[in-house]
Amino acid sequence: MSAALVQKALEVVDPDFNKYSKGKKPKNAESVFHLMPESQKITKNITRKGRKEKVGVLATSKKLTVLEAKKNFKSKDDILRENLKKVKEIRKACRIELDKETTEKIIERAVTRKPVKAKKKTKKAQKTAFTEEDFKKFEEEYVG
């Protein structure tokens, strides 16, 4: 079915459809929620500027006020205090003893927010059972 036929069918069903078909919707035009029966609407009592209103929950979007935003906003100090509380609670619950190296690695990872690279092991001089004299004798026998 083409778009033109769909529009014509909608004009037959809803005579007001032609008014809104070009995207020019008047400011006072109701949304889709006016089609829902009153008994099925989910409403909520809200006090605005000293008066109580019954508002449809689905029809409105929650607007955040400045006071609510300030309540939700946490400063860095608050976040730090919460993190310290959590660490203390974990320490109480966890009875595992960690050595100093492990705790330093954990702290370093937390500060840098990157995995700690393993330190490269230095190679020790290889010990052999042969002495320098044995090497000299072997060289003389092999070459000469």
Characterize the structure shown.
By secondary structure, the chain is mainly alpha-helical. The protein has six helices and two strands, in the order ααββαααα. It has helices spanning 3-13, 17-20, 66-72, 76-93, 100-112, 132-143; strands at residues 43-48, 51-56. The radius of gyration is 39 Å and the shape is elongated.
Q: How far is the first residue's CA from the last residue's CA?
A: 101 Å
Q: Determine the structural class based on helices, strands and strand pairing.
A: mainly alpha
Physical arrangement of strands within the biggest beta sheet: 1-2
How many β-strand runs? Answer: 2
Main sheet record: 2 strands, antiparallel
Strand share of the residues? 5-15%
How are the SSEs ordered, and which strands pair?
Elements: H1 3-13, H2 17-20, E1 43-48, E2 51-56, H3 66-72, H4 76-93, H5 100-112, H6 132-143
Short description:
The chain has six helices and two strands.
State the main characteristics.
single chain; 144 residues; mainly alpha; two-stranded antiparallel sheet; elongated
